[in-house]
Amino acid sequence: MSLKELTDVSYFELNNEINRPVDGQIPLHKDKEALEAFFKENVEPNTLTFPTIEEKLTYLISENYLETEFIEKYSLSFIISLYEFLEAQNFQFNSFMAAYKFYSQYALKNNEGTAYLETYEDRVAFNALYFADGDEKLAKQLADEMIHQRYQPATPSFLNAGRKRRGELVSCFLIQLTDDMNSIGRGINSALQLSRIGGGVGISLSNLREAGAPIKGYEGAGSGVVPVMKLFEDSFSYSNQLGQRQGAGVVYLDIFHPDIEMFLSAKKENADEKIRVKTLSLGITVPDKFYELARKNEDMFLFSPYSVEREYGVPYAYVDITKEYDRLVANPNIRKKRIRARDLENEISKLQQESGYPYIINIDEANRQNPIDGKIIMSNLCSEILQVQTPSRVNDQQMYEVLGTDISCNLGSTNIPNLMDSPDFGQSIRTMTRALTYVTDASSIDVVPSIKHGNEQNHTIGLGAMGLHSYFAKNQMEYGSKESIDFTNVYFMLLNYWTLVESNQIAKERKQTFHNFDKSSYADGSYFDRYINEPVVPQTDKVKQLFSDIFVPTAKDWQALQQHIQADGLYHQNRLAVAPNGSISYINDTSASIHPITRLIEERQEKKIGKIYYPAPYLNNETLPYYTSAYDMDMRKVIDVYATAQKHVDQGMSLTLFMRSDIPEGLYEWKDKESKQTTRDLNILRHYAFHKGIKSIYYVRTFTEDETEIGSNSCESCVI
User: Start and end of every Ribonucleotide reductase large subunit domain (predicted)?
Assistant: First the structure.
């Protein structure tokens, strides 16, 4: 039976039986039966097999399925030994969902789509060989990390590595516009090109003059940011990878921009079709000053980017609004308008209830925690990428007079439960850092010079984590408890430490650092003071036990690292970022990212197939009490966990807030009478996140009374 003709199979029905309790118990064994049936009825009869590894490689290369170059960097004997190693690990998927997701979305298929050409071991082998770039020792280490699912490359990397016909290895891109038509035109072309090659695109519109601003002396001629948003939405709809997926983009606007109300209105369900954006995501950058004005229930002024740039000599996004606010208000040369801060705050919450948007970037907090010289002005499609940028200047020939720096995202993730079982935690992280370094080194986005320039100068990567709630449940810790906070603190400190160690080692080997390293707080040593003065070590008995066999650096270790980095530098400008995770967490049989699970038995609607059910990893009678749904959890617990990790993560994290439209009684102390979710609830939680040092809030997902979710993640590329 070919893949195109699969009809009489039992595994979907077996999987669906998980959702039908028997004597009050979840029949988890049905998922194992579904997994076995899937291999017997689907995978085994439809996988093309070969007598030898050599014959398999010869076929895949000759038929243009695999690139030749990366294979030729190794001897055949080494490749055979790598395969023997992988087979000896006896890898097994632990759930039907994991196997189904891998074979439906990641395994290489023949041109007709009727047969599988890869097993999981094949995909791991090709990733390891590709990212090791001819280094046999590194290839073996990478294969070891991936086959034991301690490391998971981002979806574009894992999917495309080694393939002859492939997209880019990077996950997403960030570009900015300046206040002129040449920049807008170049930005639209960049969005078309970047959407074509894959990945979501983030665009900052904050520098654009507002509606009604003068153009060449003509008062009131400016059309504002909304028509530009519509142009980008149409661009993404057109550039959609040959119809394989909808192009994905997010536009960011500063909250003090005069078009902010119209910007938000464009996402409302009842918005006029002339301004409504249906598929484009919205994000806003929020300086500290807004929280202050909203808290005091004061008016706020919105400032014209056109007049701000004329007065300050730099694009609007590069002006510190919090620092300059009073001067901007007092300056008669700055065009401005007045609104109520709390009215705008309520409008944001209403839209988040309705659509999940906008994403919130606490831009001053992001810059306050930023160790790099320069300014962060925006984020990406999943709100975890926070890197400095510099603006470009484009002339009338659409050429760059000044080539600025924009951003490409090179992502990967640690699988927390599996990494905690690593025979060498530090070596595992160092190996992952090497794999991500290859991605940034190999990435060359020629069609968008500002992206290429930023990548060449800064060598940024983003190693993150998934499976935090799974690990808590497995070890009987409540999400948000003192022990869970303690664990999170130590784990992310170790990610920070070991990526610093390896980035320093690469800089030493190559005698090369990222651009402007000498102006960073790494170079002057101040970044390390907090670790030297107060080293992060386990505080609770349970967490001490969990890390008992894992090296935890002391003040002396941090001091030594400080000296090494001051002497030889760092290769990567940025190293850590926590993405939201998507299908890739299912393949890893773990919970997504570091947020709580939403259901004990998650229900996924698969196109053409129907519903597939995924039981929470390690679900049994012992772990059941520790698997509270995110929708039944005080979001301050989630914020506390993220804020703890954020101390060690140099970029951001995709923090989602999970709310019920009808909030459970007793969950929040301020809900004394009304159980319905209100704008006040979201306002309070955003302020709480701000005061905890959270840099960004991704979606607000609302679970409604009719069991639908508002604000679900729709980005396939950035969720690794």
Answer: 558-580
